[in-house]
Amino acid sequence: MKSLIPIIAVLFTFSCCTASCSKEDEPTSTENNGSVNTNPSTTKMKITIGTAVFTATLYGNSSATAFKPLLPLTVNMAELNSNEKYFDLPNPLPTNASVGGAIKNGDLMLYGSNTLVLFYKNFNTSYSYSKLGNIDNPTGLAEALGNGNVVVKLENN
């Protein structure tokens, strides 16, 4: 009986510890790798392509935080793979890249540390990107971006 008491005490201590380490301690939303908070912040951004205007929400991570001071920004984005437009920023930004997964129409991401990418089609990828934000309603985005290079204006909303 004396040997049973320490075992019960250890089990009780372990169960209390795991109860205090509940999901309440975890971030409310994470990227695929589980380490980066991608909860949309209250930072809204306006993206203008020709006469089309879209509203985007930036995430509350270090990449998006470093991107915000660059706004307003007018860039000539190049076409790539018939699903994205990209522009190489002059300086690197912090990265929080996650490997692979689903890309959504309207995702705004960072490839490497300085390539700004705006996706206009849904697909899966094995490439790594840092999530910056996404367009709230991407209806008409592909049409606005067209087939070739395009001038895109990104600014605070």
Keywords:
disordered N terminus, alpha+beta, eight-stranded antiparallel β-barrel, 157 residues, Cyclophilin
Overall description:
The structure is a single chain. It contains 3 helices and 9 strands, in the order αββαββββββαβ. It has 157 residues and is an alpha+beta fold. The chain has one domain (29-156): Beta Barrel (Cyclophilin), CATH 2.40.100.20. A hairpin with a 2-residue loop joins β1 and β2. The protein is globular, with a radius of gyration of 21 Å. The chain starts with a helix and ends with a strand.
Alpha-beta classification:
alpha+beta
The global form is: globular
CATH topology description:
Cyclophilin
Low-confidence stretches: 3-41
Mean pLDDT, all residues: 81
Radius of gyration: 21 Å
Strand arrangement, largest sheet? Answer: 1-2-8-6-7-4-3-9
Largest beta sheet, briefly?
8 strands, antiparallel, barrel
The fraction of residues in strands falls at 35-45%
Measured distance between first and last alpha carbons: 70 Å
Query: Number of helical runs?
Result: 3
Question: Helices, strands, pairings?
Answer:
Layout: H1 4-20, E1 40-49, E2 52-59, H2 62-67, E3 73-80, E4 84-88, E5 98-103, E6 107-111, E7 115-119, E8 123-135, H3 141-145, E9 150-156
Antiparallel strand pairs: 1-2, 1-9, 2-8, 3-4, 3-9, 4-7, 5-8, 6-7, 6-8
